[in-house]
Amino acid sequence: MRLILFFALGLFITGCGGEDCDQLIDTGCYSFDIRQCQTDAFANVVSENDNVVKREEDLKQWMENQGLFIEDVKLVTNFHEVVCEACHVCPQGDRYYIKLMFQPALDSLDLLNLEEADCCDHF
Q: What's the whole-model pTM score?
């Protein structure tokens, strides 16, 4: 009987020990890079000279103006250690992570290196 009790207690402890990462089914996370030479569609709204928080806020506002429902934005500066120097096809070095309600319109924004990201790793 004690063995069963200890076994059940062990399962409970290990089952409750990890961090939860709750996420809605229709929420997704994506990442993309900023293009060299400020050739992104949002470049005239999101200044690379502003601080990280301001850049995140400005990108969120720009994306919402494009019809997307953005839950959160995170900017990682100097994500790429080495970049090429061609305008429009090479990353500038910083990477955005966005959390949004799934919307196929995201593909139409022509974002550089757009890919799905794990929400638990970034938000």
A: 0.79
